[in-house]
Design brief:
The structure is a homodimer of 362-residue chains. Chain A is built from ten helices and 19 strands. In chain A, 35% of the residues lie in helices and 22% in strands.
Amino acid sequence: MAAIPVPALLITNLPDVRYLSGFTGSNAALAITRRAARLFTDGRYTTQAAEEVKAAGLGVKVEIASGPASVAAIQWLAAQLGEQAAADKTTILQVGFDATHTTVAEVDRWREALPSKLRRKLLTPTASLVEPLRHLKDEDELAVMRQAAALGDELFSHILTIIQPGIPETAIAAELEYQARMRGAEGMSFETIVASGVRSALPHGRATQTPLPRRGFLTMDFGVILNGYCSDMTRTVYLGKPSIAERNVYEAVLAAQESAVAAVRAGVTCGEVDEAARSILRDVQLADWFTHSTGHGVGIEIHEGPRIAANQAEKLAPGMVITIEPGVYFPGDFGIRIEDMVAVTRTGGEVLTHSPKALIEL
Amino acid sequence: MAAIPVPALLITNLPDVRYLSGFTGSNAALAITRRAARLFTDGRYTTQAAEEVKAAGLGVKVEIASGPASVAAIQWLAAQLGEQAAADKTTILQVGFDATHTTVAEVDRWREALPSKLRRKLLTPTASLVEPLRHLKDEDELAVMRQAAALGDELFSHILTIIQPGIPETAIAAELEYQARMRGAEGMSFETIVASGVRSALPHGRATQTPLPRRGFLTMDFGVILNGYCSDMTRTVYLGKPSIAERNVYEAVLAAQESAVAAVRAGVTCGEVDEAARSILRDVQLADWFTHSTGHGVGIEIHEGPRIAANQAEKLAPGMVITIEPGVYFPGDFGIRIEDMVAVTRTGGEVLTHSPKALIEL
């Protein structure tokens, strides 16, 4: 709390709650003052909350609320600050909440639950104060993320033995997801993308019943959740023999991806990393078909900061884990994307994804 | 739009966008006036958005925004209303947005993107205006939801052949999820719950590596997404031979569940349905261990309105699809939950889940 500009915080964004308390349930509010922290949840989670919060060992107390958890939390915070103010005239009656994760209706509900004299002034919108802390992974978190990325590699290696013309894209997704589960994943970190043939031109082509073609690209973009942390990787392979033109585009995307990976280093801006990929594609007149940003932070959530996009001034810092995933898409024809996870270090980047990137023909 | 109290709406809640436009992508804002509707998304979705919006046939135009979709949408709405106001003095410059799904920070961002004279007055918080429309399923939607529920039944029937002592809970989850995919599901509608032995006392016990016991309850709560609609069902089975006490508790939960199912009918309040289950458990001194509400609406999202909970005055209406899922949980000992999906009709309820509910011993 020392670095936080308000005397108390109400945290309701669940990944933030998990990060600070260890609790993984679907209903929670975490109330923090400079003296104490209390987690509010409901009766479904009595046992789980006690166990998880104890295992995290951060000294958070659990309270089972009969009504909405966040309302109980704001009332507790108001009472705590009221007591402190009575004892110490310098206490400011303010509770920060994350304006980027709190709805207009929630704030109204919290206000209505407060004594009328606190209703106008207690609640103070702030930026997301916890999410930026999550961007910087410590050694324990990096160890888990290496494992998550390694499981992704295992799944890719396995799926190469399954791919063949005629089987539906959904069978590829099903097999990836089944093997992820059997190898210890809690689930997938996002809806598995399996896009074959002309569908590879859809950057977010979720698996459909479409049968894999005899000849064409196949893009697989998938990730697991392992011990609470997400992995994310993409490989594009070829069924049959690619044309020279197809191979050339693949090589350009790969060169762009490797250029951006090589640009990763603490102190470099996110825009510079994006530009490292984009400029390679610009040189070969492909930049117009690279229609998204180069990557994003990843951790407890599949999409965290920083954004690796054009002109982003934010600087990379040691401990950030980001994706590098340029792609080129020709609508109605084909598309290619290649993605690794990279941990930022002082001197460069540790690539967490180890699957081969040279074009695989199946 | 005729029934809506504002001349224009900005819709950013993705299930609502999907319901109104057919678009299923992960980034979208839908702008609606009394004259036109326009969907804003980004370059990743150029092809997909055109296809899906055309297939839905609701006359929505697609625009690919270079910046944030919702900012482009509010600017378009401001321009549209400005034009209308110039032609027709009675036009009110107001755009409604859903206060329950819009963050404080988003509203600030929209305001900043508006001309200064519109900044204060254009945006008007409203209740969720689209979600209540989604509660009432039409015949096409009911047909899809029957299929989703039937797929759940198929999976339950299949999983009974897999269950045996010693295999981990995650293997049960993996098999359910694999079979769901192979039988056409887009994915699961929520994280699969597989809670065995003492873990069955956790109402939301996600599958862990815990091996199934030789003797004890096993609760499986799972659902699929099929053609965009969610299913949801729970069955609790027994490995080995239950004690008389265990069987008695099971019979009580089943009686409570059947009592609530029998109470479903258009015009009945949600509180009355909840009470139909709760009173049965109260009669046998088990109500203190029924620590959650009886059910919830289900559709494009796994949790929609109405809430089937104590004292809820909202009345059931034909076309609503709800879950009925009472449970009893003894922490540190065992738990039992039984859940069906039920479609509300004028004269009763159509139970969509057909799996047997008499206690299965494996």
